């Protein structure tokens, strides 16, 4: 998983977190624990109808359920 994560750096990603939260942003970096650093991050609520600007955020890997890329280019 970590080897493939390097291809996602600089790409727009969506994180589905524990407690049914969703965060989108540009992946800036990660570590071996799958802790992620996002820039231009937003919390998405109400099925995408509401977006709350977060800016730069650090997400602990143990809080992440799903990671998906939103970039349309092939990774």
Automatic annotation (TrEMBL):
GO cellular component: catalytic step 2 spliceosome; P granule; precatalytic spliceosome; SMN-Sm protein complex; spliceosomal tri-snRNP complex; U1 snRNP; U12-type spliceosomal complex; U2 snRNP
Keywords in alphabetical order: Ribonucleoprotein
Sm domain sequence ranges: 1-73
GO biological process, one term: mRNA splicing, via spliceosome
Protein's UniProt keywords contain Ribonucleoprotein: yes
GO MF annotation: an example: RNA binding
Gene3D superfamilies reported for this sequence: 2.30.30.100
Pfam families the record matches: LSM
Homology family: Belongs to the snRNP Sm proteins family.
PANTHER family the UniProt entry points to: SMALL NUCLEAR RIBONUCLEOPROTEIN, SMALL NUCLEAR RIBONUCLEOPROTEIN G
Protein name: Sm protein G
The species this protein was found in: Petrolisthes cinctipes (Flat porcelain crab)
């Amino acid at each position: 998983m970590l080897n493939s994560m390097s291809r996602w750096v600089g790409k727009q990603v969506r994180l589905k977190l524990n407690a049914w939260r969703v965060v989108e942003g540009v992946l800036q970096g990660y570590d071996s624990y799958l802790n992620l650093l996002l820039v231009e991050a937003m919390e998405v609520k109400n099925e995408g109808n509401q977006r709350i600007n977060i800016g730069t955020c650090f997400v602990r890997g143990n809080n992440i359920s799903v990671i998906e890329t939103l970039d349309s280019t092939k990774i």
